[in-house]
Every structure is written in C-alpha cells, then in structure tokens.
What we know:
Elements (H helix, E strand, L loop, with lengths): L1 E8 L1 H14 L7 E7 L2 E4 L16 E3 L7 E3 L3 E9 H4 L3 H18 L5 E2 L6 E3 L2 E11 L2 E9 L32 H20 L1
Parallel strand pairs: 1-2, 3-4
Antiparallel strand pairs: 2-6, 3-5, 6-10, 7-8, 8-9, 9-10
Helix pairs in contact: 3-4
Amino acid sequence: MIIKDLGLVDYLPTYEAMQQFTVHRDQHTEDELWLLEHKAVFTQGLNGKDEHIFNTNNIPVVNTDRGGQVTYHGPGQLIAYTLVDLKRHGIGVRQMVTLLENSVIALLNDLGVESQARADAPGVYVGDRKIASLGLKVKRGACYHGVSLNIDMDLTPFSYINPCGYQGLEIIDLKGLGCDVTMSQVKQQFVSVFTEQINQGKK
C-alpha cells in the first residue's frame, strides 16, 4: 500500500483525484492511503438532505458520491482516504466500514480513550459524542473516500448542521478529551492500526 501525506488541501480537487484514480486503476494497481486535512468545507452525501444544513456561514458545500448525510471537514481533523481494491482483499463494503471503525477504536485505545461503534449510525463514538465519521463509495470493486477523525479543531461549524443527519448529535475532538497529540503522531498511528486491520481482514 502506498502511503501519501498530502498536507492541507482543498476538498474538490482531492475528491476528483480519488475518482480519477479509481476509474483508471486495474487489478494490478497498488492500493493507496491518503492522509490529509481539508480547508473548511461541508460535504453532502448522495442521499443528503438540504434541511440538515441550517447556515453555511460562507463555508462551501460540496455534493459528493459517498454514502451518508452532511458533515464538516476543517483544519485539525485527520482525513484518511482509503483507495482499496475490495475485490482483491476479499472483503465487502460493510466489512470495510467495520475495519475503518476498528482502526479508529484501536488508535483511540492506544491514547487511553475508550470508544465504540454503533450499529445504527456508522462512525466512532466516545459515549454519546461522535469523534470520527466515515463514508465510502465503491466502483468496479474498489472503494474510495474513507474516515475523518477530529484531533484539535474548531468544532463550531458542526453546530450549523445536523451532523450526519442526526439532530443534536454532539461532536468531540481529542483535544476536548484532554489528549495532547500532534497531527503527525496520529497519522503515524493510523497507518499502523489500519495496516494491521486490513492485513487481518485478508486472513
């Protein structure tokens, strides 16, 4: 798997690059993991309803082809885009979602934070508060998009929406939980836990 650290980037060109990568890949193309942060943006899933956005406060809204409703991306949030050939790994999309959730849970556990997934709402939660969101798109047996984990960010824009379509859902980041970690530390940890999870998934 090729690991790419893209730094702080605009959403739209990154989204288009993921689509192009997936369209042009073949059975020999190596999987890629893109680690990055996005400049402030709301992204709306395929089934997204505009009623879940109350006020954009001049933050752009981009319609995407991932599943799920609206979410917010901004500096201080780790985005991990997983460009993975599911067919080659012998895993389905539901298994990939679980794999991503388990990667985040393992990472948080290493930081001393207890978290869990929920059967009714994809993502990772610390109690009732959401710390990680995910959404995937599968095309020709390969997936793209991925997971976002809140590290140390301005959470205010989440109050302008119903995050992931859930009214009153509280969003938390690692800083708010008293975890003093850098983005680069979390990136390294994510590579480690995700690689371990996907290798286990092959067995």
